[in-house]
């Protein structure tokens, strides 16, 4: 029975291909039009290479047409209703993909069409196509791309061959979803177009894929790290002005931003005329970092200003020391919290020294004590105190030099010599006692004068350093106030600018709302229009 069936099919094949020509279109009259039914079944979107602007897909193309030469009566051939014939033995329509990008336009010829007894030929060849796709990365990573596959006959015009879509949508048969792209829509449309090169119109069927990117990966690995690095700029303004690490932090953040920009350029087409929003966001963040770097240079310069070389203007003192500190969460300097009556102008403040009492040696020491010249008794009321009131010039002209050291050494030497001469016994002690007292008095008077000058100098220098420290503190407070102002401005500007740039993408707000409401980002509310 099996042998008889084989003989019937063999006899059928011999009958069908006895006078058959596979190069002639199967129409009875030259004016007839052969209708070819077209259906595209998508198996997988293998890759959408954004940088190369290529989409790789695995599809099945179903073609159905009627070949009157391949019809038979099943009753004559043991009720055989269909047979398989290699595609190279019969006429097949020259359907090609016009926008193929890999150099191979033909379908797979190694499959065998199925021929029904009424002459209907069904061909279902698989194919892997690499098609050119114009990519718009304006809203990357919240973007949608439209890529199309354009199929049509290369040789036959509309007057000889007509393509009719079997379905107005791409069929997802055994579809394997892509991890990055979700198919929002895939319509198929018939077009008849006249080309400048040829006569007549050529029919094509264009299947367009509306692909929406799943941005979770890019948000997690690009946007979030970039945002965190951008907000590190705020820490620069929170650091005290005295810290030199502000410059190091600014430089590190700037280099991180540049690295992110280089990473993005590897993922987008080099001919992108409209920069993506993420690049705009990086440029915005980089601008913020660079301006903060320049600003910190000015702050460090301001903090290290010398109060003599750079006297503080009155309006700066009034604005940044008296008015603004409470508004930015800082306290006024203690030296400026007093009333005007209690506050001395630091530029014209006189330096004062309290009165000091210097004891003088006795005029008539007891001769019984060999060291009587150093037993100083209490002086009289008229000569009890030696008072000195000093009023130096203004601060800028009161930088005092240290008393000469050699002169003080000479005075100490004289005092020691006088003491030695008084302590040595002599035959003429009685006659010279009065003269020695005069010498000792003069030496000690000069020595005490030197001590008073040294004390006066030290006091003036102490007051001077104290005022200098206050003026330097004023510049430091000004730097802190400006730091705090820019901290507030940068926080508001960074949040507002980042939100405005990211939310400019139509799908960004929809993504974040759905992601917040539903942690499962595969929620259909985001992927279905």
Automatic annotation (TrEMBL):
CDD domains found in the cross-reference section: LGIC_ECD_nAChR
Domain Neurotransmitter-gated ion-channel ligand-binding span(s) in chain numbering: 9-215
Keywords for the protein's UniProt record, in alphabetical order: Cell membrane, Disulfide bond, Glycoprotein, Ion channel, Ion transport, Ligand-gated ion channel, Membrane, Receptor, Synapse, Transmembrane, Transmembrane helix, Transport
GO molecular function: acetylcholine-gated monoatomic cation-selective channel activity; transmembrane signaling receptor activity
Topological category with respect to the lipid bilayer: Multi-pass membrane protein
Record-linked Gene3D superfamilies: Neurotransmitter-gated ion-channel ligand-binding domain, Neurotransmitter-gated ion-channel transmembrane domain
Source species, domain of life: Eukaryota
Biased composition (Polar residues): 417-437
Subcellular localization: Synaptic cell membrane
UniProt domain Neurotransmitter-gated ion-channel transmembrane: residue ranges: 222-501
Region (Disordered): 354-395, 416-437
Any one GO cellular component localisation term in the record: postsynaptic membrane
UniProt cross-references to InterPro entries, sorted A to Z: Neur_chan_lig-bd, Neur_chan_lig-bd_sf, Neur_channel, Neuro-gated_channel_TM_sf, Neuro_actylchol_rec, Neurotrans-gated_channel_TM, Neurotransmitter_ion_chnl_CS, Nicotinic_acetylcholine_rcpt
Family of this protein: Belongs to the ligand-gated ion channel (TC 1.A.9) family. Acetylcholine receptor (TC 1.A.9.1) subfamily.
Name of the molecule in the record: Neuronal acetylcholine receptor subunit alpha-3
Organism this protein belongs to: Holothuria leucospilota (Black long sea cucumber)
């Amino acid at each position: 029975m099996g042998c008889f069936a084989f003989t019937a099919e063999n006899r059928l094949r011999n009958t069908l291909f006895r006078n058959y020509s596979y190069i002639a279109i199967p129409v009875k009259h030259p004016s007839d039009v052969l209708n070819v039914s077209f259906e595209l079944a998508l198996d997988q979107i293998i890759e959408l290479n954004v940088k190369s602007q290529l989409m790789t897909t695995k599809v099945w193309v179903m073609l159905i047409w009627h070949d009157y030469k391949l019809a038979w009566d099943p009753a004559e051939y043991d009720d055989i209703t269909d047979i398989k014939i290699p595609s190279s033995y019969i006429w097949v329509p020259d359907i090609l993909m016009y926008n193929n990008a890999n150099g191979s336009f033909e379908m797979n010829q190694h499959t065998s069409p199925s021929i029904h007894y009424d002459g209907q030929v069904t061909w279902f060849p698989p194919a892997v196509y690499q098609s050119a796709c114009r990519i718009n990365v304006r809203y990357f990573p919240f973007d949608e791309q439209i890529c199309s596959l354009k199929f049509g006959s290369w040789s036959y015009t509309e007057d000889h061959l007509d393509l009719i879509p079997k379905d107005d949508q791409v069929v997802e048969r055994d579809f394997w979803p892509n991890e990055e792209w979700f198919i929002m829509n895939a319509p198929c449309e018939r077009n008849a177009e006249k080309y400048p090169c040829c006569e007549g119109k050529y029919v094509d069927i264009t299947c367009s894929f509306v692909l929406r990117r799943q941005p979770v990966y890019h948000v997690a690995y690009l946007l979030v790290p970039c945002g965190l690095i951008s907000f590190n700029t705020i820490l620069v303004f929170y650091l005290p002005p005295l810290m030199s690490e502000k410059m190091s932090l600014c430089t590190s953040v700037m280099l991180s931003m540049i690295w992110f920009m280089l990473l993005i350029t590897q993922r987008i087409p080099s001919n992108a005329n409209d920069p993506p929003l993420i690049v705009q966001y990086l440029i915005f963040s980089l601008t913020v970092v660079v301006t903060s770097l320049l600003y910190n240079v000015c702050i460090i310069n301001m903090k290290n200003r010398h109060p003599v070389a750079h006297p503080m203007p009155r309006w700066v003192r009034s604005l940044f020391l008296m008015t603004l500190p409470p508004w930015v969460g800082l306290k006024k300097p203690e030296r400026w919290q007093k009333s005007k009556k209690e506050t001395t102008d630091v530029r014209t403040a006189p330096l004062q020294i309290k009165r000091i009492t210097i004891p003088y040696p006795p005029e008539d020491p007891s001769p019984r004590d060999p060291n009587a010249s150093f037993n100083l008794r209490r002086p009289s009321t008229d000569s009890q105190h030696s008072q000195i009131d000093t009023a130096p010039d203004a601060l800028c002209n009161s930088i005092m030099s240290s008393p000469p050291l050699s002169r003080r050494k000479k005075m100490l030497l004289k005092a020691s010599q006088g003491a030695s001469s008084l302590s040595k016994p002599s035959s003429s002690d009685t006659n010279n006692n009065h003269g020695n007292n005069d010498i000792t008095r003069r030496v000690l008077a000069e020595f005490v004068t030197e001590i008073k000058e040294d004390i006066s100098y030290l006091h003036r220098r102490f007051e001077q350093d104290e005022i200098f420290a206050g003026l330097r503190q004023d510049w430091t407070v000004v730097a802190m106030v400006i730091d705090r102002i820019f901290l507030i401005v940068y926080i508001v500007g960074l949040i507002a600018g980042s939100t405005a740039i990211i939310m400019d993408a139509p799908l960004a707000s929809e993504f974040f709302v759905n992601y917040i409401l539903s942690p499962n980002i595969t929620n259909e509310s985001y992927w279905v229009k």
